[in-house]
Specification:
The chain is mainly alpha-helical. Helices cover 63% and strands 0% of the residues. The radius of gyration is 28 Å and the shape is elongated.
Length: 215
């Protein structure tokens, strides 16, 4: 297997330093992207993916220009630590807006995690970890909302099974989705689908059946 070159290893190390990644986070990133914990063992075909991952974290790579490079070119090739800090704070502010929270909430997370009073007082590594914590919180809240929505939906269809009135307003047996007349009009595939459980296909089968019956 071919591994990345020395120049590419140097580039990754520079990105690590510019991003302020700890050795633990850096190696975790290598394992996640390339399946190894040292830059010397990164396969060549994984380099582009790793570079994109580093750029997603805020590192900016500017390809070398042909010909003599000016001092400005050298200074602009990578972001400074303060630039990286601004990127991380912007990321935190962005996810706080999505969560409908103010920067005060972000300050509180920083305080709880690291004992630092304000978000901007933290170092790059601390601010990035606050961002990661907020991402986890966001995903958890999203899952909670989805579960609540699912619970409401399941309750609705459970009531449809429990009541004794069909969609056609005729009487039906408790526990059955439709009266015998409506059920008999359904094609075989829909009849079979209605035997699915509430959490595994019944809601969609019921919707399809009601649509087929024209209600």
């Amino acid at each position: 297997m071919s591994y990345i070159s020395r120049n590419q290893i140097a580039m990754i190390q520079i990105a690590k330093n510019q991003l302020g990644l700890s050795d633990k986070d850096y190696r975790a990133l290598l394992v996640k992207v390339a399946g190894v914990n040292t830059s010397k063992k990164i396969p060549k075909y994984k380099f582009t993916k790793l570079k994109k991952e580093l750029q997603a974290l805020g590192w900016v790579y500017i390809p070398k220009k042909k010909g003599k490079r000016t001092d400005t070119d050298k200074e602009c090739q990578y972001r400074t630590p303060s630039d990286i800090k601004s990127v991380y704070i912007a990321k935190v502010r962005g996810i706080l807006r999505e969560l409908d929270k103010t920067i005060i909430y972000g300050d509180g997370v920083m305080k709880n995690m690291f004992g630092v009073d304000r978000l901007e007082f933290g170092d790059n590594d601390q601010i990035f970890k606050v961002y990661q914590a907020l991402c986890v919180y966001k995903n958890r809240q999203k899952k909670i909302k989805e579960n609540i929505k699912m619970d409401v939906e399941l309750k609705f269809y459970q009531e449809k099974l429990d009541n004794e009135e069909c969609v056609c307003f005729d009487k039906k047996k408790k526990g059955r989705p439709f009266c015998y007349s409506c059920y008999a009009r359904l094609p075989d595939n829909l009849q079979q689908a209605l035997f699915s459980t509430l959490t595994n296909g019944f809601p969609q089968a019921y919707k399809d059946a009601v649509k087929f019956l024209g209600y």
